[in-house]
């Protein structure tokens, strides 16, 4: 089974070797930029590449500010703190995500609430969100959204642009406005994905990007906070140990973090960012070929939502049922073509098992059917 799909993937990458899900590609100035940090000795927390990487990402995304961090999880942690989330708060998010989304919530003593996703976008459903809030929450006299039972504050909504496909941002912005919620976008996987012409991560008050090794461009490990001027200044302060500028004294005026991206990593990021648009055009070509190849087959290829330009970070198909999913995963991995199921839903993990949740029909439906296919940028010359 699935021999033709396996043959098709091998034809794309022109190799009989193991084909990974997503491998980084270093065809640009990466080597020169990284060596430059060694030659100048500026490998660590100070250096010109960090400033340049932040400036370049801000320009590319259209964000007022971009603050580099050691990884995407750290950026999420700081974003939640900037949003005023406190221990005991509830944070609205989706169960279909990488565990980092929920871990960042839990680090500050808050708890995720799991709301269903849309089958079309794979992202948080504004309809499910509105329905859950109408049933379970109210807005108090001070304007704070609270759970009716127990009055716990609900300050933040944290949707995810799953596999790089933009969520329904217009719908989510509407719900957040009605319920006085602070929107943070987990755009970790969505670098280069645009919703109605604007970069994902710039619709909420804060947005988070990741440059981990498996993402569309990488700094080895790294992340970025997208923010306005005021929150950007606060973010920079918190991620650099909350140190006040002074000619010689060490003055730290609040609890800060050592979350700043090293210059060594930023150098890699600068060189990768120069190639992002080329990577995306190659990945979109690959996605179009998958779509054509699978047209009329039992596997339904997941395409970008209307009005969006997705980066197609991870290509995905929907199987007919869980049995077919197992068969596809078994056959492809046995043949050296790496495929993976979607993440186990967060509400199944022991640490999030008892969290509040709405009906999760779509998330469960997707969990049983989604398989990610090899999605690396095609080697030069094979496009
Ligand atoms: C990769 C990822 C993260 C975490 O980013 P790191 O840089 O690996 O810490 C968070 N959320 C989602 C949806 C991701 O895909």
Automatic annotation (TrEMBL):
<dbReference type="InterPro" id="IPR026385">
    <property type="entry name" value="LegC-like"/>
</dbReference>
<dbReference type="InterPro" id="IPR015422">
    <property type="entry name" value="PyrdxlP-dep_Trfase_small"/>
</dbReference>
<dbReference type="GO" id="GO:0000271">
    <property type="term" value="P:polysaccharide biosynthetic process"/>
</dbReference>
<dbReference type="InterPro" id="IPR000653">
    <property type="entry name" value="DegT/StrS_aminotransferase"/>
</dbReference>
<dbReference type="Pfam" id="PF01041">
    <property type="entry name" value="DegT_DnrJ_EryC1"/>
</dbReference>
<keyword id="KW-0663">Pyridoxal phosphate</keyword>
<dbReference type="InterPro" id="IPR015424">
    <property type="entry name" value="PyrdxlP-dep_Trfase"/>
</dbReference>
<feature type="active site" description="Proton acceptor">
    <location>
        <position position="215"/>
    </location>
</feature>
<keyword id="KW-0032">Aminotransferase</keyword>
<feature type="modified residue" description="N6-(pyridoxal phosphate)lysine">
    <location>
        <position position="215"/>
    </location>
</feature>
<comment type="similarity">
    <text>Belongs to the DegT/DnrJ/EryC1 family.</text>
</comment>
<protein>
    <submittedName>
        <fullName>Probable aminotransferase</fullName>
    </submittedName>
</protein>
<dbReference type="GO" id="GO:0030170">
    <property type="term" value="F:pyridoxal phosphate binding"/>
</dbReference>
<keyword id="KW-0808">Transferase</keyword>
<dbReference type="InterPro" id="IPR015421">
    <property type="entry name" value="PyrdxlP-dep_Trfase_major"/>
</dbReference>
<dbReference type="GO" id="GO:0008483">
    <property type="term" value="F:transaminase activity"/>
</dbReference>
């Amino acid at each position: 089974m699935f021999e033709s799909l396996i043959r098709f993937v091998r034809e794309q990458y022109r190799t009989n070797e193991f084909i990974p899900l997503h491998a980084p590609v270093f065809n640009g100035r990466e080597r020169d930029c990284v060596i430059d940090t060694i030659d100048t000795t500026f490998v660590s927390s100070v250096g010109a590449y960090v400033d340049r990487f932040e400036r370049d990402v801000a320009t590319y995304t259209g964000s007022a500010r971009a603050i580099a961090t050691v990884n995407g999880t750290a950026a999420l942690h700081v974003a939640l703190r900037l949003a005023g989330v406190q221990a005991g708060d509830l944070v609205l998010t989706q169960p279909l995500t990488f565990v980092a989304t929920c871990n960042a919530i839990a680090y500050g003593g808050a708890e995720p609430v799991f709301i269903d996703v849309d089958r079309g976008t794979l992202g948080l459903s504004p309809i499910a969100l509105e329905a859950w809030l109408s049933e379970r929450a109210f807005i108090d006299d001070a304007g704070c959204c609270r759970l009716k039972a127990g009055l716990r504050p609900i300050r933040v909504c944290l949707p995810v642009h799953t596999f790089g496909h933009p969520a329904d941002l217009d719908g989510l912005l509407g719900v957040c406005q009605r319920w006085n919620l602070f929107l943070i976008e987990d755009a970790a996987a969505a670098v280069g994905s645009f919703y109605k012409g604007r970069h994902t991560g710039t619709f909420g008050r804060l947005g988070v990007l990741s440059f981990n090794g498996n993402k569309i461009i990488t700094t080895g490990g790294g992340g970025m906070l997208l923010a306005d001027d005021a929150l950007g200044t606060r973010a920079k302060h918190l991620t650099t140990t909350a140190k006040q500028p002074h000619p010689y004294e060490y003055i730290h005026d609040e609890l800060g973090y050592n979350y700043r991206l090293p210059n060594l990593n930023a150098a890699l990021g600068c060189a990768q960012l120069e190639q992002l648009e080329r990577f995306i055009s190659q990945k979109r070509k690959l996605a179009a070929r998958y779509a054509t190849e699978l047209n009329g087959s039992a596997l339904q290829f997941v395409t970008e939502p209307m009005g969006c330009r997705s980066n197609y970070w991870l290509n995905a198909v929907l199987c007919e049922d869980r049995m077919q999913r197992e068969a596809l995963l078994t056959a492809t991995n046995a043949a050296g073509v790496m495929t993976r199921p979607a993440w186990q839903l967060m509400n199944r993990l022991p640490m999030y098992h008892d969290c509040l949740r709405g009906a999760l029909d779509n998330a469960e439906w997707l969990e049983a059917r989604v398989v990610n296919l090899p999605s690396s940028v095609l080697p030069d010359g094979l496009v």
